[in-house]
Fold this sequence. Notes:
Layout: E1 6-11, H1 20-31, E2 38-43, H2 59-68, E3 71-77, H3 85-92, E4 103-108, H4 115-127, E5 137-139, H5 142-145, H6 155-182
Parallel strand pairs: 1-2, 1-3, 3-4, 4-5
The chain binds flavin mononucleotide (FMN).
The site of flavin mononucleotide (FMN) has 14 residues, from loops.
Amino acid sequence: xRDSYSLAVIxxxxxxxxxxxxxxxxxxxxxxxxxxxxxxxxDLAELDLPGDLAGGGDAERFTKRVDQADGFVVVTPEYNHGxxxxxxxxxxxxxxxxxxxxxxxxxxxxxxxGLRAVEQLRTVFAELHVPTMRTNVLIPNxxxxxxxDGELRDPGPVEAALAEMVRQLNWWAHTLAAARADRPYxx
Length: 187
Ligand SMILES: Cc1cc2nc3c(=O)[nH]c(=O)nc-3n(C[C@H](O)[C@H](O)[C@H](O)COP(=O)(O)O)c2cc1C
């Protein structure tokens, strides 16, 4: 088994005054304590991914970074009970590069904490042969959730979920990396 694995953390919101980077920074700060993964942060607001999926822009660069990852975390808000359109474009840009690699969610929004967006994303990633982690990191009422230092006002349940989700991700990422090296996933 390899000592470390490569984890791509994808920030899925691109709005000008989005809170997504604050959520992502919080996650990345707390991630270190729970994993040996080397993190590659992919912020969709910094990438030009053409909506016609015909390549160009940053499509090849994004696909290569997905290819290099052994696992993923998607940081997503909830918009009208779904997930952001640019996130779907990003998901649809690579194809086989996602396969047989685990993925966890950090979601946020109003009272639901983005749960409905996550449940929709699970069905999308199932089509791409991506196992999704059972435990979600949900941040409800996100605009009141953080203090001035960018830490959660009520960290208990959310940080416990983070530890649990990353533990699941570590197991799947290590296990599937070894399995892919042993036998290419060609199903
Ligand atoms: C168009 C739009 C629709 C939204 N719909 C929902 C929703 O269905 N459920 C929810 O919990 N929050 C909803 N919200 C609140 C967002 O989750 C919240 O504004 C969050 O900050 C958005 O993430 P962002 O700032 O990173 O873009 C919506 C926000 C926008 C802009």
